[in-house]
Amino acid sequence: MPTRRDQPVTRDDGRAAERPPQLGRPRVEDRTPAILEAAKELMGEVGYDRLRIQDVADRAGAGLATLYRRWPTKQALVADALRYHAETFLPPVLDDPKEDLRVLYRMLTEKLCGDGGEVLPGLLAALRTEPDLASVIRDEVLGPINDRARADIGRIVGEDNPHLDLLVDVGPGVLLYRTVMLGEAMARDEFLAGILGLITALSPTTPSSGPSRP
């Protein structure tokens, strides 16, 4: 009589035999973190405009089809990479607003410019031509950086300073002008010292009482 699947298999000596392990497809490792890390690294090395999905797949050790199933376009992949790394753009808050601002601007020069200055120019082009990616850049990367800078500068010069909004734009504006327009490699210490010196010069001071009367 054939053995039913729900009955134990017995050996010739009458003892139950162990069933062989069930075979099936092995569990596939989630390559998402490695893929997003590879996308970020390559964007820093070659820029957004020269980034290729094939190169991301090769660096992450993933199949090209795997990437295209999850991210059908390069824009979608870069948007997720920016979201994944967005919180790394903001350093921890310290007690000294000037030091907080210095650390924030150092992060800005390192993350958005990098050693080769490749990240910023490509992303600027995307801001004009790719609305979905531009929304991620503005809302999830630049927005939090701007809010943090405004809070730090407000603590330095006073929230009621009439030039507060312009001062928030000074650091990123100079960075953009020098790296993209002039093609300069940023001298980070010089840049940071100059921007902080300008902001500090507008800090509120105790007004002079003027010459004393005899």
Radius of gyration: 28 Å
Number of helices: 9
Q: How much is the average pLDDT? A: 80
Shape field: elongated
Which residues sit in consecutive blocks of at least 5 with pLDDT less than 50? 2-6, 19-28, 206-214
* Sheet with most strands: none
User: How do the helices and strands follow one another from N- to C-terminus?
Assistant: HHHHHHHHH
Report strand %: under 5%
Please give the share of residues in helix: 55-70%
Number of strands: 0
Output the structural class: mainly alpha
Give the end-to-end Cα distance, rounded to a whole number of Å. 125 Å
Write the layout of secondary structure elements.
Elements: H1 32-46, H2 53-60, H3 64-70, H4 74-85, H5 97-112, H6 119-129, H7 131-157, H8 164-181, H9 188-201
Helix pairs in contact: 1-2, 1-4, 2-3, 4-7, 5-7, 5-9, 6-7, 7-8, 8-9
